[in-house]
Design goal:
single chain; 8-stranded antiparallel β-sheet; alpha+beta
């Protein structure tokens, strides 16, 4: 079984928290020309009320032709090298990481009003982390309507409907509690707080 059972994460709250904190998805799409996947990277916003991811890509992106098909979304959280010194020399060198894999069906949005809603949601969400004050937040309506419509013609707006979530959190869960505690303390002292917080 891979990942090993002790590295699998099934807690939906933690999975959603990771995709919200690290929204840049690596999207794997089947390629009929060879055995490898096509790959693109797209920032996505998860809407828990509707249980969909939303985003947009350039209309010439291969993803635009996958309406109704399934793709894989990979969200990579924080990661870092694990030195044996972090565990009082009781582990081998390793790497800590967290990631979420989602299988989702692609739905290309056609409705103009729906496109506007998606762009509004995306900009409202990402601008709040970009600006210090609410008054500084850039608004989509600063772009004239006709210009927005012309710009939207160059984009594909997409909803991704998830059918399966799984998490791979490799955080020394296979080590004794005292070793995990030592690793967590060492990570905190090293300023690696985001990954230290994931270690229980």
């Amino acid at each position: 079984m891979y990942p090993a059972a002790h590295f699998q994460q099934h807690d939906s709250k933690q999975l959603q928290q990771l995709v919200n904190s690290y929204p840049l998805a690596t999207i794997l799409m089947p390629n009929t020309q060879n055995q490898l996947n096509d790959i693109c990277r797209v920032p996505l916003l998860y809407d828990p009320a509707r249980e969909v991811f939303i985003g947009h890509v350039a209309k010439y992106n291969p993803l635009s032709s996958f309406d109704g098909q399934s793709v894989k979304l990979l969200f990579s959280g924080d990661d870092c090298y694990l030195s044996p010194a972090y565990a009082h020399n009781k582990t081998l060198p390793s790497w800590l990481y967290s990631s979420v894999y989602v299988t989702a069906k692609v739905r290309i949005v056609k409705d103009q009003q729906h496109k506007e809603q998606i762009m509004q949601r995306l900009t409202d969400h990402f601008e709040q982390h970009f600006t210090e004050h609410a008054t500084d937040k850039w608004q989509i309506n600063e772009v004239p309507v006709q210009r927005r419509k012309a710009m939207y013609q160059q984009l594909s707006f997409i909803e991704f409907i998830p059918s399966h979530w799984c998490g791979n959190f490799k955080l020394s869960q296979n080590k004794p509690a005292e070793i995990r505690a030592a690793i967590k303390q060492s990570l905190m002292l090293a300023g690696k707080l985001s990954i230290a917080e994931l270690i229980n």
